[in-house]
Amino acid sequence: MLLAFDPANPRLPLGDWIAEATEWLTSTFEAVFDGIKAGLAQVYDLLSGALAAPPFWLVIIVFTALAWWLRSWRFALFTALGFYLIRALDQWLTAMDTLALVIMAATVSVVLAVPLGIWAARSETVSHVVRPVLDFMQTMPAMVYLIPSLAAFGIGAVPGMVATVVFAMPPGVRLTELAIRQVDPEVVEAGRAFGSPPGRILRQIQLPLALPTIMAGVNQVIMLALSMVVLASMVGAGGLGSEVLSALGRVDVARGVEAGLAVVILAIYLDRLLSSLGDRAPVTRAARLRD
User: Fold this and answer.
1) Nearest-CA neighbor of 48 among 95, 106, 82?
2) Claim: this prediction has a pTM higher than 0.70
3) Chain mean pLDDT for the chain
4) d(Cα 90, Cα 96) in Å, to the nearest integer?
C-alpha cells in the first residue's frame, strides 16, 4: 500500500489502518472484552439500583447530611432543594443512572490516573512518553472515543463508561504529576536523610503535601466525566444524556431544559463536595491557620 503512495496526490489511509487494527483487536480479544463488559455492567447495575431503589426522600437526606458534614448548612440546603427539584422535574431515575455512571467512570479514571501520575513524577522517561499521549487524549474530539468503545463493547452503559474513562483521565494524571513535583525537595531530602525508603517518603511526605492539588485533579476528572456521560447516551448509556438526546431529536425545549437543569445540579453538588474534601486535607488546614 505504501508503494502506491503518490507524493503529488497524497492520500494516507490512516483511518482504514486503525479500523483494521480495531477489528483485529476486538475479534482476537473478544473474550476479554466480554468479561470486562460483564463485570462493569454488573457493578453499574448494583450501584444504579442502590441509588434508585430507596425512596427519593431517603436518598436526599443522605446526600444532605453528607453535604452538611463536609461543607456547611448552606450547601446542605442547596443539596436538599436541588435534589428535590430533580424529583419534581420527574428526572429522578435518570439522574440516579447518570450519577452511578459518573461515580463508576470517575473511580476507574482516578484509580488509573493517580498511580500513572506518580510514576510520571518519579521518572522523566515515563513523563516524556505520557505527555504526548495525554495531549492526544485531550485534543481528540470526545465523540470519537465512542466509536472504538462501541466496536469493542456494543450498545449499552459500558461503552459509554469506557469512553468516559479515556476522556476524563488526563487531568488526573497531569495534576498528580504536578503535585508530586511541587513538593519541597528539601522536605523530601530530609526524609531521605533520616533513612526513610522511597515508598515511605511517598506515603508519608509527598502524598499528604500533594493532596490538595491531587484533589483538584480528581475534581476535574469528575466534571469531565459528567460532561461525557451526556454524550455517552449516543451509544445507549441512558441517564440524563438520553433525555437530552431525545429532546434534541424532537426539538422538545421543555424536556431538554429539565434534563439539562438536573445535570447542572449534579455537577454543582459533586464539584462542591470534592472541593470540600480537598479543603479538609491537613496541609490545606495548616496553610489556612498560618495565613
Assistant:
1) 95
2) yes
3) 86
4) 12
